[in-house]
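To whoever is covering the structure queue this week,

Two jobs came back overnight. Logging them here so there's a record in the thread.

Job A:
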Amino acid sequence: WLLAWGGTSYWELRRVPLGLWATGSRLRQEDFPPRIVEHPSDLIVSKGEPATLNCKAEGRPPPTVEWYKDGERVETDRENPRSHRMLLPSGSLFFLRIVHGRRSKPDDGSYVCVARNYLGQAISHNASLEVASKFLLTCVCFFFVEFFLLLVSWQCH
């Protein structure tokens, strides 16, 4: 149990086999809470393609980083070796392939990274990951091809 916390020191009480044990410590001057130095950006990715949501945090001691999607913690390869999501040493979240279907939970949503150490936590800006629609891409490409052909034929007369 953390008993007291004051500016540069803290006291902790632990239960041990022969009773209770109190310990105290002074914080090292160089320790500081986490801060996000690289926030993730919005992404639009095709289904089945790889993607990376970047996040970089600083702090001392170095913070641990976790990701949340739509308010729920994201499972990565650290908890499940079969996961298609990898937490990189930098804190970024790498997707081996973007999943978007009925058989598994889709990857599209709003993501934040949270960096923590014993002095506190820092939360990144929201970043949305959207799965590109093949129909939309086909329509846009078709429109530009038609427009380009119309423009070329107009100039040839």
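Job B:
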Amino acid sequence: VFEYVLLTHFFRKSSILKWTKFHFEWDTVKQIMIIGFPSFTAESTVAIVTIGFNITFVQYAGEVGVASYAMVNSIHAMTLLLFFGVGAALQPIASFHYGANLAERLREGLQFAVKIAVVLGGVAIIVGLFFGKYIIGLFDVQSPELLELTLTGISLF
């Protein structure tokens, strides 16, 4: 109902925004498809692999295996965000130094980012190995079997 109230704006004569006849610019659509297809392929592949993993875990470890995999995968995704953050922080710095033709400063910035990423990776490994039980506790795990399987998954992942 609320959408209809909002749409009435477009049908008023005093409205600045008007409905227009829409048509595709096929050259633009083609360029969008060319640029977007690799991302589409990558995301589709991730979905297919995840489905494959879920089927495999159900066959070999049952529902507990799927739940464990989901937790390990969530922890992995959160950890991965740390490294995305390092990359995102490096991008404007690298762009500035590249644009200013400061190759030495660019190299130093890249080396610093790599060092930070290595340290973060080491910390993530240590936290996963020694404090994995506490991280899994964030998921409110009640089953001892699920806890053990997830701890094993964290140490292997």
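Note for Job B: Residues 63-156 form one domain.

Please reply-all if you pick these up so we don't duplicate work.
Q.
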